[in-house]
Each structure stands twice: as structure tokens, then as C-alpha cells.
Amino acid sequence: MGTLVRLVVYAADQAPASAAARAAFDRVAELDAALSDYRDASEVSRLARAAGGPPVPVGPDLFAVLDRAQEVARRSGGAFDVTVGPLVRLWRRTLRTGDWPDPDRRTEALSCVGTDKMHLEPAARTVRLDRAGMRIDLGGIAKGYAGDQALRVLRALEVSSALVAVGGDVVAGEAPPGEAGWVVEIQPEEPTRAGERLLLRQAAVSTSGAADGDRPHWPAPGHGGRAGGRHRRQPRDRGLRARAGGGGGARRGHAGSSGDRPLGRRDARLPRLVGPSPGPLRAPTTCGR
After folding, report:
1. CA-to-CA distance for 117 and 52, rounded, in angstroms?
2. DSSP letters spanning 189-256
3. Most confident among 32-41, 55-64, 204-213, 261-270 (mean pLDDT)
4. Of 74, 76, 184, 228, whose CB has the highest number of CB atoms within 10 Å?
5. What is the pLDDT of residues 29-78, one digit of tens each?
6. Nearest-CA neighbor of 36 among 2, 61, 67?
């Protein structure tokens, strides 16, 4: 998915915390292999290569994400559209090279965009893309799905106090021991402005941006994965920080484990938001999932 995944978990002992974190990372890696358009061998990339042909059988995760994406597209009046892949590919090239896309190429890309050109068949679990050249971009939904799935794995292993950050999408489970929740700080583009703080418990928040000082730290080879011990690491990614609400690290009788893992390739350049801020983003202290 071209981003960094970070976990912070609390458990009664270090061993179950580390084992649960490994299982959650493995689940996200499995989803990355299916949903990432940064990987040529991924399931969604293979679907793009079959565009214009007959229906293609897909796995349960890709089908579930596409089905949900179509529902959101209907509810948003088409504002959310995962078939924008051809346009995203053009603008990624512009970010890398600085060359403005040719008008003919933009028109051609637009002709391959539209949720009405993607057809899902639940009984056979197949997907058909009408036109050759169509591409699916799941950047607006796959990271949230991966965070939900990672938290589900942790809960199944009886680790309910956890925070999962997949890029700027953060999913919070139960609060850390002795805390009211996880404090997530949204850092503004303007360095002189104060950040907005959210208290999350059994809730999620999605952020977007490219603050220069808050790009993910990529572990050096041999130093990635999970860091154990009785401590807490503050995840930072694209203008976002998270910590246990109101206090320090792991409490007596609870071992904290945190770590991160990169997913796929990530462009060196990121777009900056232009124009006025849409205003502070707030979430309720508690929210059912």
C-alpha cells in the first residue's frame, strides 16, 4: 500500500504481546499482497491487467473492499470512486517528473473512470472491468480495512488494548491500562498553529497531508519489525501522532510492545494541501465500531 504500518499493544506479558503483534503484521502483509497497486503481482494489479475481458475471480478481501467501495460510491453520489486509478497514475507521474499530463492522456484516462464500468457478482465472487486500461486505486479505503483487520486479529488473541496506524488511518481498540483512551494529535500544515487532539477508544480516524517534518521513519535493513520492552513508542506519520491518553508508558503488570513495518514502495514526493484549512477535526471520546 506504499505506506508504513505501526502497532502499539498492551498485554499481561511481553510474549503474548509480541506474538499478537506478529500475527497482526502478517495479516496486514497478506492484505498488502491483495490490495496494493504498488505491487505488480498483487491481486488488484492482476485485475487491472484483465480489464476489458471476462469476469475475474477474486479473493474474499478484495471483493469485500470493492463491494464496500461501491456502496460508499452510491451513498456519496459518486464522489468516492475507486476506479480513478488511471488518473492517479497520471498525477503520480506528474509528482515525480513535474511534467503536466498531456490533455489527450487526461481525456483517455477519464474515459476509463466510473463505478458503472465495474461489475461485481457476489455469487461467483467475480469482478469485471468494462474497458481495457481501467485500474483500481484503493488508497481511500484499503488502509482503513487493513487497520480494522489487524485489530480483529489482536482481539482474537485476547489483546484488546491496541492502536493500529496504517499511514494516516488510525484504528484504536480499548484504552491502555489506566487511561481514558488514545490521544491522537493532528498536526497542521502551518507550523505556527496548535495541533488538534482527539481522544479515541473503540474508534477510528483518518488523516491526510504531507507535513515535511512528519514523514514516516523507515527502519534501516535489519532494524525493522517490532520493538519489545516495557515502553511505548509514539507513532508519527503524515502529520499524526498518537499516545496513551494522560500518562506514560506501560503500567505495572502490563507489557507494552510497539513496532512498525513498511508496505511496498512509497513515492519520495508527496502533494501538499493548498488553500485554507477545512477546520478542526473532532471525534467523540467513545464510539461504537
Report:
1. 10
2. SSTTSPPEEEEESSEEEE-----GGGPPPPPPTTS-EEE-SS-----B-SSEEEEETTS-SPPTT-EE
3. 55-64
4. 184
5. 999 999 998 899 999 999 999 999 999 999 999 999 999 999 999 999 99
6. 2
What is the domain-level CATH number for residue 45? 1.10.3980.10
Query: Does residue 273 lie in a domain region?
Result: no
CA dist 260 to 15, 22, 194, 204, 234, Å? 17, 10, 27, 19, 11
Amino acid at 86: P
Residue with cell 466510473: 114
- In a shared domain, residues 164 and 125: no
- Kindly state whether residues 207 and 125 are assigned to the same domain: no
Could you tell me if residue 134 is inside a domain? no
**480489464: which residue's cell?**
51
Could you tell me if residue 269 is inside a domain?
no
By three-state DSSP, how is residue 183 classified?
A: strand
What's the domain count of the chain?
2
What is the torsion angle, in degrees rounded to the nearest 10, for the CA atoms of residue 46, residue 48, residue 49 and residue 51? 130
Q: b/e per residue, 170-206, with b = 16+ CB within 10 A?
A: bbbbbbbbebbbbbbbbbbeeeeeeebebbbbbbbbb
**Closest Cα partner for 1 from 232, 261, 241, 229?**
261
- CA 169, CA 203: separation in Å to the nearest integer? 11
Do both 20 and 158 map to the same domain? yes
Assess if residue 13 is contained within a domain. yes
For residue 228, what are the domain limits? 3-32+141-263
pTM of the model: 0.72
Which phi and psi (to 5°) does residue 156 adopt?
Answer: -65, -25
